[in-house]
Amino acid sequence: MNIILKPVITEKMTNIKDKYNRYAFIVDRKADKIQIKKAVEEFYDVEVEWVNTLIQRGKDASRYTKTGLIKGKKSSFKKAIVQLKGEHQIDFFSNI
Question: Could you read off the pLDDT of 64-94 as tens digits, one per residue?
Fold first, then answer.
């Protein structure tokens, strides 16, 4: 099971990373906090202090096309916010 799907790289999360040393990831819906902690520690070789999780509800979406208004819904997902211990850091752009 692939627990970590992708990191959340936004302007808001970059500010939180710089200020509090916290990182956000989109994770599998079935993963619990212990599995997420182990996956982050193994994949990024850091020590995790704690993990908070939340399920982001899917938002309503609509768009205008030639045939008229199309309404739909974006899918919901689970997000994990990870606090690292001490001076540990994750560099997402080192492999580019």
Answer: 999 999 999 999 999 999 999 988 999 888 7
DSSP codes, 41-61:
HHHH---EEEEEEEEEPPPEE
Rounded distance, CA 82 to CA 71, Å?
A: 34
Q: Which residues contact 16 (CB under 8 A, 6 or more apart)?
A: 22, 24
Give the mean model confidence (pLDDT) for residues 25-34. Answer: 96
4-84 has which fold? Alpha-Beta Plaits (3.30.70)
Give yes or no for a contact between 78 and 28, defined as CB atoms under 8 angstroms apart. yes
Distance from chain centroid for Cα 19: 17
For residues 14 and 83, what is the distance between their CA atoms, to the nearest angstrom? 13
CA dist list (Å): 77 to 9, 21, 47, 74: 16, 23, 25, 10
